[in-house]
Amino acid sequence: MNQPKVVVTRRIPLQAMELIRPHATIFLWDKEEEPIPQNVLLQEARDAVAIYTNVADKIDREIIEAAPQLKVVSTMAVGYDNIDIAAATARGIAVGHTPGVLTETTADLTFALLMATARRVAEGHDFVKAGKWASWAPMLLTGQDIYGATIGIIGLGRIGEAVARRAAGFGMNILYYNRNPRPEVEAELGARYVELEALLRQSDYVVLLAPGGGGTYRLMGAREFGLMKPNAIFINTSRGTNVDETALYDALKNGSIWAAGLDVFDVEPVPLHHPLLSLPNVTVLPHIGSASIATRTRMAVMAAQNLVAGLMDEVLPHVVNPQVYEK
Ligand code: GLV
User: Which atom of ligand 1 is nearest to the CA of 98?
Assistant: First the structure.
């Protein structure tokens, strides 16, 4: 019997491959760090029933329209702004993702980046290794305090809430801005809902955790950075598209904000000549929010479970577009 074809767009953990293998003929783009070229993806999608994808691929309308047999797209990520959900839904294609399993791990990394940026950890590391450490000095590599400071979290979803819990443990005042107020988080952590403008004006740390996509595109621009305090630190572990990077560069360069910690960029990998990389007050990471061994393995397995459910015409355990089942 002919097995359905599954396109796996990157080498993934063995446990995940083993879940898929009994159900499918697999086309694997067998690279660890190199994305599948779009023309190869387009070609391979033509007779595919399922695609196992990740944040670095673009599953756009062209791919979806080229794949008449496609039933399921499963991404090894919680975010799905790289997938044309409307096009998939219109075709009845279920889209799966991996919510929940990466919440705490991503909150850890967000807080690590916040602390590293505030206390200039990367600068200090480079300073010592470059042989520049001549003597103890009273104001050497002085940064900003975390305890007692005000954190403003934009997007209080699962990860935002987990960051708020860490902030409470560090004795921070917590503000948040979200589509809907979250009274239970307010009661538990003493967080306070404010409008975006008030959050930007009052926070020492502005942490962006809103999902990507059309509704949040360039949420942070010149006006928003202009409202922040000169001692404020901006942290982004959501999506680079949420930020106008030119406006961020200007704000950092002219001192209208103090520093930024970025795990995500408008274009990834961020080009080496990008102006943001030339600034000493920017700490950067390569989109590794959920990158612990345990969590990435769990995400890979969860994405495989979603994909296999789709192959078997079952409801995906974690579906982005449940509308596809409403017929
Ligand atoms: C990573 O960015 C994810 O959405 O899981």
Answer: 5
Question: Measured from the CA of 239, which atom of ligand 1 is nearest?
Answer: 2
Q: How far is the CA of 135 from the centre of ligand 1 (A)?
A: 42
The beta strand positions in the chain, using DSSP E, are 5-8, 25-28, 50-53, 72-75, 94-96, 150-154, 173-177, 192-193, 205-208, 233-236, 259-262, 282-284
- For residue range 195-238, list pLDDT tens digits in order: 999 999 999 999 999 999 999 999 999 999 999 999 999 999 99
- Looking from the CA of 149 toward its CB, the CA atoms found within 13 Å total 22
Domains contained in the chain, CATH given: 5-101+293-325 (3.40.50.720), 103-284 (3.40.50.720)
Question: Within its chain, how far is the Cα of 298 from the centroid?
Answer: 17
Cα–ligand 1 centroid distance for 95 (angstroms): 15
Catalytic center residues: 239, 268, 287
Q: What is the pLDDT of residues 164-183, one digit of tens each?
A: 999 999 999 999 999 999 99
Q: Tell me which residue has its CA closest to atom 1 in ligand 1.
A: 77
